[in-house]
Batch of 4 targets.
Target 1
Amino acid sequence: MLSIRKGGLDPHEAMGVGGPMGSHEAVGSDGGTGFDEAVGRDGPVGTDGGNGTHEGSAPAPAPGTHEPPGIRTAPGTHVPPDTSMPPGPGTPPGTHVPPGTQTPPGARTAGPRRSRRPGRLLAAVAVLCAVATALHAWVPNAGVNAGSLFQTLLPWTGLGVPLLLGLAAVRRSRTAAVAVLAPAVVWSTLFGGALTDKRSGGGGLTVVGHNVNEGNTDPAGTARALVGAGADVLALEELSDASASVYSRELAAAYPHHALIGGVGIWSRYPLADVKAVPIMPWTRALRATARTPDGPVAVYAVHLASVRVSAAGFTTGRRNAAARELAAALRAEPAPRVVVLGDFNGTYLDGALAPVTSQLRSAQREAGDGLGFTWPAAFPVVRIDDVLVRGMTPRAAWTLPATGSDHLPVAATLGR
């Protein structure tokens, strides 16, 4: 299309699509080719009809102006300088950070907030453990006899202290860490004294009790080991008809006095008198005799309470508890001022079901032992179900002997007047 003036066609004027251009004006791709100026692919053409020699190309962006690639600014448009800050440390490359949101160098960025609930839950568990351990005697035995089982394994509750403390450290919970002090204090009160050696010197009556295990394949070797302990009195439980004669033969030289009834027996360096069975079960599982020691008579009991079982029905202790009540009645009727009871109680001193017996006697291990004195199973003892209990005597030392052919460890104690 041509522009016609009144005076005719201007031979020096060329027309673009949108308007006239100067003879030296650069034209975009839709209006011809410029002679002296290269124009960008999308560059706009001047529209004011002027004949400026270099009119129609956009001015270069001002320094510091942020302009996305491929977009040119129309002439006369003001673009504010880019005030966004460069990405800081940890910001992925190419990320546009709006002004005022960049973390100053050296500033510590806040991480994701941790939930306080796990820490509070750990603290609650710690307090619950402390309360249960402190009030262990009140844990009920109804149904599955949970109380007896808990009290039997009570020393092992101490393992919960480092476990809870470690979890508190992982959660970085000060509340939980402080709460763990509660079970730690309770456990230390109950068992801390057992971690020290309370044995003292001085002579006295040395006694040994041992469940020799009816299935022991080396009764002669077990007998020789017991002689080597140098005790004055031995009380043995779980004797079979075959093994009883072996023990009598092997122990005769060191212990000229002995009494044997059913599956229990007493061997002594000193004369025995007033020997009788103690009826705690339908068959004989307890024996009583008076040992005439140089320091005066001592009533000696060899005891084997009924076994317990852990099954789907729970911790079955009925027969044992009944036997304990019968033994407690015999001890209440015992006239001797000095009494020592040795045996396999199939329960620990802290088992509340055995309180009829333990309330009348003291544990030599707790008063004069070194450590917790676990006795069963012999390969890796985890509970002390064999004990030396006394009345009217002073424990000077208590300990366990090395393993024999039995699944129980022997227990020993030295007793003063």
Target 2
Amino acid sequence: MPVRRRLPGGGPAPSAPAHASTWKDAPVATSVRARSDGSPPPAAPPSSPGPRGRRPAPGGWRSTLYRWDLKAVPYVFVAPFFLTFAAFGLFPLIYTGWLSLHRVELGGGAEWKGLENYTDLATSEFFWNALVNTFTIGVLSTVPQLLMALGLAHLLNYKLRGRGFFRVAILAPYATSIAAATLVFAQLFNADYGMINSLLEWAGVGPVDWEASKWPAQIAISTIVTWRWTGYNALIYLAAMQTVPQDLYEAASLDGASRRRQFLSVTIPSIRPTILFTIVVSTIGATQLFGEPMLYGGSVGISGGSGNQFQTLSLLMYEKGGSPAPSARPRPSPG
């Protein structure tokens, strides 16, 4: 029986109609209508795929082509790289290793020697001298080169007037040919009339023989390498610094970090992969050093000076390929 409420004026409130039902009795609307006997309706037939998503029937030639298309096409796309690498990278490497076990002369056949070439190399004074020279010249040229490149990139990363000009200017030594740069530096380091010795004499230091002495010659060659490659590495560092988010610098500035602290704590960790890349590339370049010491030594450049004081591994291989006999050569100078 419905409960009657009274209005504020005292009269009874109108009751709800008898045919009205509560919300619990209301029928629930569904998207699927049942049959009259209560059984569920039949399932709708699956929609056929369009022409692009249609798969061929299994067992036919189209199905075979479809499987080959999915499995073989990716290998076809990467095959040119592997074929090129095998022809110009892997095969020469394996063939060179095979030839190292023979005695080979230009225009002649190959004579089997086994490990005799390696034992001769391990007991050769010229090899160890060239190996030490390559290492020292590499250290003297790589370490200052990368440190200066990092500093130049840090300066060019700020908003300066004429930044475009300075970026082009530091790349100019890289565009200079090895022959031109080496000949100019050979004149600067000349022991008789070079500008470097003139400046040393003006400063009260005696003249230095930059070619006949071991360490001065290596320092001079390292200077040429550093001058040529510093700008190249600086641009690589600059490109990496420009990818560092500015939010990191703003957060460090709010914490009271100075420019030096931001460089050490924000910039260096952010470009660490780039620094590793330049170290690897510079190390590889140092082991392949050839043009600078050969041109710097002039007539004795192939042998790395009169006493092999700056002969690198590349120069040694070049000399061994054309020299008649190593016994006719002077022993490397100790210092």
Target 3
Amino acid sequence: MSEQHREARGEAGPSRPGLFERLRGLFGLGGASIRDDIQEALEESTASTDFSPQERTMLQNVLGLRELRVDDVMVPRADIVAVHIDASLADVLSLFRTAGHSRLPVHGDTLDDPRGMVHIRDFLDFLAASAEKGRARRRKASATGTRNGGEEPPKGRGFGALDLSRSLAGARIIRPVLFVPPSMPALDLLLKMQATHTHMALVIDEYGGTDGLVSIEDIVETIVGDIEDEHDEGDAPSIAAAPDGSFIVDARASLEDISKVLDVALEEATDAEEIDTIGGLISTLAGRVPVRGEIIAGPHDLEFEILDADPRRVKRLRIHRGPTLAPAPQRRRRTRAGEPKEASATEAVTESPSAAGKKMPAAAETAPAAAEAPAADMPPENG
């Protein structure tokens, strides 16, 4: 039966192979997937003339998106900025100002009791509506007072008359959030956010606790790179060189960035296979969360001095190259001639605190000739 007869009867004929498939068959290249072909084309050096570096990066990120899971893009629990459901509107307003986010998760007693989220647009709409109701009541009271011969109340008291002591729960502006497991593919979460018009998801672990948070911006940034607006200045983890040759580092800094600065391969360390940040590496090396002031020995003759930490995580640290503990200063004693002289190892042990109160012969007393001879040859000290 001809193709025209099939079209007339509404039947679909066998699909024809495309030009690309026919060319692959002609050269005997087999039936490789289009994804593999695109990846190979992007990796070839000749592709640099067809794509700009930005286009190649974005295309590679798109192809790699299906391999990312939610826990690869989420904000960890320790970095979540949230608000209590019984917080006052004044506290919510202050947190919106300092956090710089447009959405804040709402919780009960802890983050493991999530109640939803509050959007800054809903919050401002509620404040504006409350101010408008207040102005309407004042206009009505003003009209009534004027008719009764009273004085007209002052104007211009819009937002200044708002009652910000009201609780967030009483405002009824809390929206639902999505709850997803950490193993969910990031691409599936992106599609779910688009379908439900909900752009925030809480990552829940197997025990029902909150493990992290994901916004739609976090997923989009895996494709186009970091998105920074006018209020995102200085949010990147800092790595600052100190005058003594050490580095003061934010614990959230990535191992890749630290490795580039120090010219070492920290990301290839045995214990760093599934670790992304320098703070995570230090906690893994120590087997716990180190306390402030502690020094942790690391790979490549590095030492990590903890500058700031809390019971949950390391916040800031100093990286030293080589040992940071200087040898104890040698003690000095005076010879019979009154000149300072370095105490020997035997004398240091003899005069140690553990031997305090015990009269023990020193090496100089048992062999005075041997002790005084070097002292006579010792050059005088400067100053």
Target 4
Amino acid sequence: MESDTSVSQGQRRPWIVGVSGASGTPFAASVLRGLLAAGRSVDLVVSRASRLTLLDETGIAFRDGHWREDLRNWLARGADGRPHTFAVTDEALDRVRHWPAGDLAAGPSSGSYPAEGMLIVPASTACVAGVALGLSKDLLQRAASVTLKERRKLVVAVRETPLSGQTLKQMVALDEAGAVVLPASPAFYAGATHIQDLVDFVAGRVLDAAGVEHGLYRRWEGELGGGGRRGAAD
């Protein structure tokens, strides 16, 4: 497992992961597993709306008072809904800090709080609008605004279709502000044979944009037919 750069330098510098209310909580779980597998620290912000989505998509009720237990169950669950698909260790959970979405005095609300950057996955159109307009109505939006003003990496994994003209304009505004706008669009050249492969491709592209190493999908190597050969082998 790759060592956490923040630990090696004597200061914790987490990746802030914001989960908004868009459908796509398996994308967030895969990104979180990828960060933890790479030895990175994580500050987690789960919006109020995303808790309803998580409950609907997984049956898991994410509670502030029991966040560690709920997070373990969420991360252990596969994209196909099967529990206990992934092992989640106490050591990995020890590197996660959870902040309630309504806590505007939380660490990530300040630019002086050390952080590598922020990943919003999935990002709803309401979240896109709030960040583009700088509303800071909750900790997720505030942390994103801080990430932009501090010139840190912000990756916004938009999960919506179709997109209105207003949302497209807001996505352009985020791009111009320095964010990476990353639609949650899986590719098929990696030879996906399972829904988890499609989820992991999107999560892997989020981690690519953040500069975090991972092995979530087969990369393009300039040779046609690689994905098909993988599918046949599986």
